[in-house]
Amino acid sequence: MYSYIYRYIQKIILKKSFYDTFIKIIEKEKIKTIVEIGCADAPILDKLKNFVYYGYDTEKKFIKKLRNKYKNISKYNFDSTSIEKIDFKKHNPKTTIILLIGVFHHVNDIKISLFLKKTKKFKIYAVDAIRIEDQNFFTKFLLDNDVGKFVRYFTQYKDLLTDYSFFLARNKYLIFPYDHLISFKNLNCKKLLKKII
Length: 197
Prior knowledge:
Elements: H1 2-13, H2 18-26, E1 33-37, E2 52-56, H3 60-69, E3 76-79, E4 96-101, H4 109-118, E5 123-131, H5 137-144, E6 152-153, H6 154-160, E7 165-170, E8 179-185, H7 190-196
Parallel strand pairs: 1-2, 1-4, 2-3, 4-5, 5-6
Antiparallel strand pairs: 5-8, 7-8
């Protein structure tokens, strides 16, 4: 029930899909496998073709529904595992990309550091809420009341996500003021992001 309500609300408040931008980026890369952390009900699967997909989420109810929904598609895999416990050894860093939409701001620095140690060679694309000094009252109110308790300032993301590149998307995804930081690694997509966002 939660996922349906959440997706319905997202359809109302989104003016641009996080996934559309991501798909345009991976079309330029030699990607065979997508590993999505925090996949929830995996809406990206409606947009994908010809990719092997691994979806991870700590909510077992999502994983159970996804396994049932896609039980006849062998290239789709789902597991209820937290970010720091995922085994990335079975994935080829040259042809795999890791996707995290709204994940880092739900995870503390220690768990992110464990994840980073395991994924040094991988292509990574992440989108998260960000705090900025000049944000208006409404945006600050939304960030203060976000379920994720680790919405960081840019300097905090930068100190944590060393070797990453960043792109600030101010008020690009939602119909009301809300800022996002796109963090990426081993991807040459800054010029492309400027064109599509």
